[in-house]
Structures are given as C-alpha cells and as structure tokens.
Amino acid sequence: MSSSRFASLFLSSNFRCRGSAFQSFARPPLYCKNFARGFRQNAANRLSDRVTQQKTAEVVKSDEQAMKELETMLAVAHRTHLDIWSAPVTTLDVYIPNWLSKRPNASILDHWRSFVQSQRNWLRNVQNMYQMAKQQAFPDIKVKSPWSLQIFRVRTTPWLAGLRRAALEVYSSVNQAVAANDTKTIRKYTIESYRDVLLKRLQAQDKNNHYVWTLHGENAPCQVLSIRSFQGHLGPKVPQFGHRLVIQALVKFDTNQSLQVYNKRGKLIAGDGKQQRVVEYLVLQRRGWYDGPWTIRDQLYEDLDNKLTPLT
User: Fold this and answer.
1) What is d(CA 108, CA 105) in angstroms, rounded to the nearest whole number?
2) Segment holding 63, helix H or strand E
3) CA torsion 16→20→26→28, rounded to 10°?
4) Which of 80, 153, 182, 298 is in the most buried spot, having the most CB atoms within 10 Å?
5) CB–CB of 222/252 below 8 Å?
6) What pLDDT score does 37 carry?
7) What pLDDT does residue 310 have?
8) Residue 91 pLDDT > 50, yes or no?
9) 8 A C-beta contact, residue 288 and residue 247
C-alpha cells in the first residue's frame, strides 16, 4: 500500500482501531475525556488545598503573633503599672438615622441606602445596649437583667438618662470654655480631632475681644441616636473601678443659644443677644475603667454620609 493511500485511510472517518486505546485521531473516546476532566479537577483541588493550607498557616501565625504581643503588653503593664489599654481608638460606626437621605438631589438609591443603614443602626444599638447591660455599664443605674425591652429604646430608655444629663453638662462646659478661651477645660472634656478643631478655633480668635456664650434652653431633650461599645480592657484582672467597655454615643443637641462679642473697651461689636436654634450631632466617649467624665471626640453632620468603621 502506498503512503498516500495509508494516510487517507488514517484520516478518514471510517478508520477505527478497535481494541486499541483510541478510536480516532481527531476525536478521543469518552473515557479519555473523563480522564482529562478528572485530572484537571484533581489538579484544581490540590491547588485549592494548598492555598487553603497557606491561608490557614497565615491566620495561625497572625493569631500566634497577636497572642505574643498581648502577653508582652500584659507583662509590661504588670511591671510598670501602666494602663496599656488607654491607646487611642477610632470613631466607631455611629450613624445619624434617617428614613430618607438628606443629601442634596438625593436619588432613589440614596434614600434606599439611608433606610437600610438606619435599620442597621437600630440593630447595632440593640446589640450594644445588651452588651452594656451585661456589664452594668450604664451611668447611675443598675440593670436587673439585660433581657429587657429597654434595649430597644435607645432614645427614650431611662437606662441612658445619666448619659444624657452628663452629655448636656459636657456640651455646655465646652462651649463656655471656648468663649472664655479656657484651654484647660477644653482638654478635660474633649479628645482626638474635636479637641484639635477647638484649639485651632481659639488660636484664630482675637485675644483682645471678650466672648459671651449663653445656653438659653433646649428645644427638645438631647437624645442618644446611636451607641456602640467594645471590650477595651483585656487584662486578666477585673478593673478595680467600673467595667471593661469603651463606649461611644452619638448625641443630638437641639438648643437655643446666643453669642455676643465685646471689644476690650466693653463695647458690643457682634451679636445682639437674640436666641438662635442650633442642632449638633456630637460623638461622646468614655472608658469604663476610668473615673473620668464623658468626652467629646467627633462631630457628624446630617447632610453628609457617615463614614462607617465597624469594629470587627
């Protein structure tokens, strides 16, 4: 048989090698396809297992590193009697709840996001109220049981009455201190970025002028809109005072105020003493194991989207 004749038979669809490992050169049999598919699947599984093992090793390594760092911190605290749990923290995911978005020209998607985030804020409030009740972290009150309907009533619950009173006192003291150029009081009742803003404001004020700030009253009692807490004290011993939680609360202040400015001769140069309505949303913070006041750490604005930073 000539070579050309053999090649034509080999490539024709009628050519079959029955009893051999293949049926045609161009179309492998089904079991060959299954073998190839199984080979690829096994290779993918081995690669996935290798990646999983690598990630697990990294997690274990990071956990071991975290435990070593914690042990080192505890040893330092025991030897030096320093409070290693007083490191600065970020503003948590407190949120100004609104059924509809307050953004200018808000879209339907903006309104939907505002609604979803408000519902999420309500759920987070419930979780944190329960956690605070378990550790008896409410000011001036002892909770009988965390299983109470009060955990659903952040704005009206008597559990937060002490916090609301303290918040109004701090708010008034800070504004009075700004008007009087009292940096000592500002440093006592403010922290983080809010303190920096107030101190810069004082530097911009004319030292020759005298400022008189007056709080005439509230249009509505201040309200806690959003509350968050986490265990900030991880020491093996229970704190001698208070509890282990760091608490942040977003409080709404709706007040009537007035500001008057006098020059060094006592002449009124700005402000007429008329009351003006001022609505502010301030984030207050307190560490439960300190016998100290609530402090203002940040300010949020209703017409801007909040930047959520949940603690995980």
Assistant:
1) 10
2) helix 30-80
3) 130
4) 298
5) yes
6) 67
7) 44
8) yes
9) yes
CA-to-CA distance for 165 and 153, rounded, in angstroms?
17
- Round to whole Å and give the CA distance between 173 and 168: 9
What are phi and psi for residue 142, nearest 5 degrees? -115, 120
Name residue 299's beta-bridge partners. 282
C-alpha–C-alpha distance, residues 119 and 141, integer Å: 28
| CA 168/CA 198 separation, integer angstroms | 18
Decide: 273 and 56 in contact? Cβ < 8 Å.
no
Mean pLDDT score, 7-28: 47
d(CA 309, CA 62): 22
DSSP state of 138: S
Rounded to 10°, the helix 161-180/192-204 angle is 30
DSSP conformation letters of 235-250: -SSPPSSS-SEEEEEE
Work out the angle at residue 131's Cα, subtended by the Cα atoms of residues 126 and 133, and round it to the nearest 5 degrees. Answer: 95
> 56 φ, ψ to 5°?
-65, -40
Contacts of 304 (CB under 8 A, 6+ apart): 103
- Please tell me whether residue 269 adopts helix, strand or coil conformation: strand
Residue 250's identity, in one-letter code, is: L
C-alpha dihedral, 78 to 81 to 84 to 85, nearest 10°: 100
Chain centroid offset of residue 104 CA: 25
Q: Which residue has the tokens 């939907």?
A: 112
Q: Could you count the other beta carbons within 10 Å of the beta carbon of residue 232? A: 17
Q: What DSSP letter does each residue of 192-240 carry, written as one string?
A: HHHHHHHHHHHHHS-TTSEEEEEEEEEEEEEEEEEEEEEE----SSPPS
Numbers of helices and strands, H then E, in the chain? 6, 5
pTM (predicted TM-score): 0.72
